[in-house]
Amino acid sequence: MSFADQALHAGVWTLSLPPLGLSRAVGRGLGRLAMALDQRHRRIVLDNLSVSFPEKDQAWVQDTGRKVFEHIAQVAVEIPRLVRLSPEKILAHARCHGLDNVRRALAKGNGLILLTGHFGNWEWGNIAGSMCLGFGALIVARPIDWLPADRLVNGWRTKSCDSEVVPKSRSARALLRGIKQNRMLGLLMDQNVDWYDGEWVDFFGRPACTNKGLALLARSTGAPVIPYHNWRAEDGKFDVYFGEEVPLVKTSDKTMDIWQNTQNYTKVLEDIIRQKPEQWFWLHQRWKTKPSQFWPRERR
């Protein structure tokens, strides 16, 4: 372990020492401060909420925007505990729901794809969910540019059961191998992609360029897809949910199938977000890609 790894680990460990309730209270305060000072992200959050919930008034938008900043700051102060706490203690702060949905899907012997996004504290939920099930998942993630940080994050992502992080840039073969081994795969599908990598589907009433990889994988392998998310509850624990299987659309028209399944999966995510909009990552420019874009080579 390099000096940078040791220093980073020690710093994060130290941040995990205050009581969880105190850390969360500080996080909420920092979130309100960030909303006041970070004009760029405040504009992104409020604009996203205003357009996504046109039936809500500005008072609701402002209040929910504040809660979004408070939530993200709480996630930031909760995460250091994932380095220090054992998986069992992480699970003690969570409740799991719908485990039978996972077992029924895996009983088919064709793997399982978790349809998920940045809900609640997604890092905490990943560990707690694996502990509830007794086995982990192949988690697709983009590597962090700074290697010490990447090693630290992957350390807590793989500390429970047999979870494994798969770099996004070379995930295809690993995911196909995981399905053949009847493993569980975790794919985030709530982020913007360039138009040549995605499908244009409706998301909160607007066209959103959405990764079609999950639909391609599900259609080609027949692996069942179930939604997965978690919320921070009022008592401070995390409720982790494994939903019912999303039906796969498979006809003779592959192109239309990929679009339809991508739309169906996106609608599932939208329905989840509507439950607790303050606990989704509205800071992300989800609708950044526009219908008229250059090919990559044309930018040069």
Shape: globular
Largest sheet: 7 strands, mixed
Q: What distance lies between the first and last C-alpha atoms, to the nearest angstrom?
A: 40 Å
Strand order of the largest sheet: 1-9-8-2-5-3-4
Rg result: 19 Å
DSSP helical segment count: 13
Number of strands: 9
Helicity level: 40-55%
Q: What is the mean pLDDT?
A: 94
Q: What percentage of amino acids are in beta strands?
A: 15-25%
Unreliable runs: none
Structural class: alpha/beta
- SSE succession: HHHHHHEHEHEHEHEEEHEEHH
Structural account:
This protein has a domain at 88-277. The chain has helices spanning 3-15, 20-37, 39-52, 58-78, 81-84, 87-91, 99-106, 122-133, 147-157, 172-180, 213-221, 254-275, 296-299, and strands spanning 94-97, 112-116, 137-141, 164-167, 184-188, 198-203, 206-211, 225-232, 238-242. The strands form 2 sheets. The protein has a 7-stranded mixed beta sheet, sandwiched between helices. The mean pLDDT is 94. It is an alpha/beta fold and 300 residues long. A hairpin with a 2-residue loop joins strand 6 and strand 7. Helix 1 crosses helix 9 (147-157) and helix 2 (20-37) packs across helix 4 (58-78).
